[in-house]
Structures are given as C-alpha cells and as structure tokens.
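Notes from hallway chat w/ T.B., transcribed later so I don't forget. T.B. wanted the structure written out for a chain they're using in a teaching module, and asked if we could keep both sequence and structure tokens in one place. Agreed to drop them here.
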Amino acid sequence: MNSLIFKFLEYLKAERNYSEETLRAYKNDLNQFLEYLIDREKVDDFLKVNSQMVRNFCGYLLRYGYDKRSVCRKLSALKSFYRFLKENKKIEKNPATIVKSPRLERKLPGFLTESQMREVLALKPPKEISYRDKAILELFYASGLRVKELVNLKISDVDFENKILKVKGKGEKERIVPFGNYALLAIKEYLEKRKDSSPYLFVSKFNKKLSNRQIQKIVKKYLSKIKNSPATNPHVLRHTFATHLLDRGADLRAVQELLGHSSLQTTQIYTHLTIGQLKAIYKKTHPRAKLN
C-alpha cells in the first residue's frame, strides 16, 4: 500500500474513529485513483496531481459506467485525502477542492404506509414468523436503526425498564434511542426462548452475531410478502420510521437526533409526505389559496 494512503487511513482510524468498512472503501477508492494516474496520466506520485487530473478521473469513471453517486463518493474521498496532505504540509493546495461533484437527481426514500407496516407486524410467532425475526422487525420500526447499529446491539445496551437503547452510530458516536411497548414485548418474548449466553441481542441459530447480510435476508423475506412494497431492504424500515413520526407531528430536529444524522439537511428528505399533506390542507382550507 502507498505510504501516504497508509498514513491517511491510520489518521482516520485513530482521530476520526472511522469504521473498518469505511476505511476499506477509502483504501479502494485511493488505490483506484493511483492506478488511474499511473495508467492514464503517467504519474506515479499523489503529490504531483493537479485539479485537471482529478477532473479527468471523474470523467473517466462516468464514461466507464459508474453511477453519479459512486463518483461523488470517490471524489469526496479524494478531497478528504488531499485535505489531510495539505494539513500535514505535504502539498500547498488541495487539487480536488475546485472539482465539482456530478449533479445528482434527488431521490425520495421509499417507505411503507401505516397499513402496510401493520400488515408486516401482524405476523404471529411461531407459525408465521420466528420470535427473533418478529423482534427484529418491531425494533427496526420502533427505533429507525441502521442495519449495522442493530447488528452490533448487545443485551446490555437495552434498558428494559426505561425502554431506551444505547446505540453506536457512524464514527462510533453514541446516542440514546427510545422504543415502544410492542418492541419491548417482542424482544422479551424472543429472549425468553433463547438458550445461549451470547452478549449480542440478535444471534443466528449457531449463537453467532448476525451479519448485515443475514439481517437483509430476514427483512426481505417478510417485506416481499407486502403488496406494493416500495423496497424490501432494511433501510426502508428506517425511512418508514422517520416518515411516520413526521406525519404525526414530530419535530424535525428530534427526528434528526433519533436517526443519528449529523446534518439537519439529511433529515429533511423525509419531509416529502408531510409537506405534501400540509399543502393539501392549505389548498383545501385557506380562503385565498385558489381562485373562485
């Protein structure tokens, strides 16, 4: 591995608490850029890169089939990398700063309606669903957790009396997330059936912590049964959690805290339905909303 990449990754791990998954993505992006530099730009040194080379790299990726979101992520990695090099006096200017990201079409997240969600959670264990899977679905909807956050939950992270979770989110940031009575009951029923001593809340039949992929397969199994489901991945439950809270009047900043978003702007994508409802109410009730 290039020594500059190694030092950058060490910095992200030690100072920024980045996860192994994120570090792996940064490493792959930077190695891909270095391969491009050597092959296309005939440059084998990160310190000799200029803005045009970075711009050319983005264009190269788009021509060869990478979607805009992937290119934006790779450009973001380069900007962070060169910011690190500048702060450490390796370069005078960040060549990636002035390179603009490809313009993304803003996609609204899919979500289940309240009736669809009721249909999912109406499944009865043990005939229609296992106690474990029931608890997983209930907790996803009750807390809006990311898959990785749910996978890493330990029994000790659950305060059963006060119905709150201690969650480690992105960048190892801790937050407290409440959950409701239905999720509490489902978790208790599941734990009563378990006979292992694993510290993790959700485990496989071999008493091992579930993987992200296993959680995805579990959720897909049940969401696939729902007619007109917008998606079958666990993230749709996170979107559903946020949308239903906002539909019923939750404060946007409160939802931001619950989701663990660092930026309010990220949370605002969930206001699509709420804004639509407000406009409909306004149009229907305000005396000057439309011409007679």
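Follow-up for T.B.: The longest strand covers residues 164-168. Might be a good example for the class.
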